[in-house]
Amino acid sequence: MNQITIKGGHPIKGSIEASGAKNAVLPILAATIVGQGESHISRVPHLHDVTTMNELLAHMGAQLTVDHHADISICTDNLKNQTAPYETVKTMRASILALGPLVARYGRAKVSLPGGCAIGARPVDLHIKGLQAMGAKIKVEDGYILASCDRLHGNRIVMDKVTVTGTENILIAATLAQGETLIENAAIEPEVVDLAKYLKAMGADIKGEGTSKIYIQGKDQLQGTHHAVMPDRIEIGTFLVAAAITGGSITINNSCNDDLDAVYDKLTESGAIISTTENSVSLNMHGKRPNPVDIRTAPHPAFPTDMQAQFCALNSIADGSSHITETLFENRFMHVEELNRMGANIHVEGNQAIIKGVEQLSGAPVTATDLRASASLVLAGLAANGSTAVHDIHYIDRGYESIEEKLNQLGAKIVRS
Ligand code: EPZ
Predict the structure, then answer these.
(1) Phi-psi sector, 287: left (phi>0), alpha (psi -120 to 50), beta
(2) Who lines ligand 1 at CB under 6 A?
(3) What pTM was computed for the model?
(4) Mean pLDDT (10-residue bins), the chain, 417 residues
(5) C-alpha–C-alpha distance, residues 134 and 164, integer Å
(6) Going by CA atoms, what residue is nearest to atom 15 of ligand 1?
């Protein structure tokens, strides 16, 4: 069951509901470590990465139940160990998010270095530097980060680079530190804001989330609480592109429109008609071939890197040439060679993809290399003439809930085998 076969040429039409955000629920689950008593997390997407995070927390000794909606009840009191083993961390880099909360609540942590991943080196030096600035004693040996501290103290921490999980690790840790912490050059992604919302509901004193300066007044303890995870803006963007690339139309309910301005602007520029209500978004391509759009990825609120591969697919059939520049990760064009196997005409020079749109892609066997690359191959398969078999499709299950079921509800012809 590690491949899907897509019969192309069927326009996406209909409506779906957006799932909870992968990149919000992962830091929120890690943050349950700093709360006493039980937390109940709802609108949890049914994803492989969420299962991995649940297994990691259970491995530490958390009491955790998952109901039939995938909602999670969790208590992290009396964790029997504060370790995130290599076997877990190597499959999901976001395990690094356990580091800050473990040191903050339990005074120690042993977390495997994540190592690189397909899209880049993915260092965690800024996570470590921030916790050291708060008094954590940290050494790295045998591939593990060993951290300890009786109690973290607040500090002014200037992030050398904008890092979402780096900001999140330090934010969570600071909620239990002695005194005030100021994080400067903080990530302003909506998922950071959703994490702060959960922490504040637990009693944390946080100001400035969603800006580049976050102030945290540490508390002695926080109480577990209920939190409904924000919608997944990248899932929403991906499904909008699915309708655009097939000349179709879609309505997505439970959308987070304020977080997707840059994506909506580029879809409008590609010729799509977009309309929104308070919590839904609709796109209609009216059967047209997309216009080419130039993209430059950058931290929020600019165009998100997690939508770059999807727009490579859209631009590959556009009526003209386009440039896509990837500024965050050093190796995030691995979908390009696979798209070219389907007849795309894309040339990569450094951190830029130069795309000459073709009339029609041809179905072909292709192989996924990472989460968003696999999404771009599925999108290309929807538009291609003939069948596309996407191998190593397990990557897509890390970030998209039942993607073939949702797409088949919208008129796609996809079979998993
Ligand atoms: C988050 O990763 C997301 N993951 C990524 O989504 C997303 O692509 C990325 O933010 C950018 O928006 C989660 O939120 C779980 P980084 P994050 O590695 O914060 C440099 C997806 O597809 N850096 O911090 O872990 C790094 O080299 C995933 O859903 C350091 O130099 O991203 C890169 O250039 C992929 N030192 C930049 O920061 C550090 O200590 C951001 O990369 C940390 C990061």
Answers:
(1) left
(2) 22-23, 26, 94, 122-127, 161, 163-166, 191, 305-306, 328, 371-372, 399
(3) 0.97
(4) 93 97 98 98 95 96 92 96 93 95 98 83 92 97 96 98 98 98 98 98 98 98 98 98 98 96 98 97 98 98 98 98 97 96 98 98 96 97 98 92 95 96
(5) 19
(6) 23
pLDDT score at 118: 77
Catalytic residue flag (residue 117): yes
Ligand 1: centre distance to CA 416 (Å): 30
Distance 33 CA to ligand 1 centre (A): 22
Q: Mapped to the 3 state alphabet, what secondary structure does 315-363 carry?
A: HHCCCCEEEEECCCCCCCCCHHHHHHHCCCEEEEECCEEEEECCCCCEC
Task: From the CA of 162, give the closest atom in ligand 1.
Answer: 38
Name the residue at shortest CA distance from atom 39 of ligand 1.
124
The residue to which tokens 């004193």 are assigned: 205
**Helices 99-106 and 22-31: angle between axes, nearest 10 degrees:** 20
In sequence order, the β-bridge partners of residue 349 are: 352
Q: From ligand 1's centre to the CA of 5, what distance in Å?
A: 31
Q: Letter for the amino acid at 267?
A: L
Nearest ligand 1 atom to the CA of 300 is 12
> Residue 52 has which token pair?
């991995």
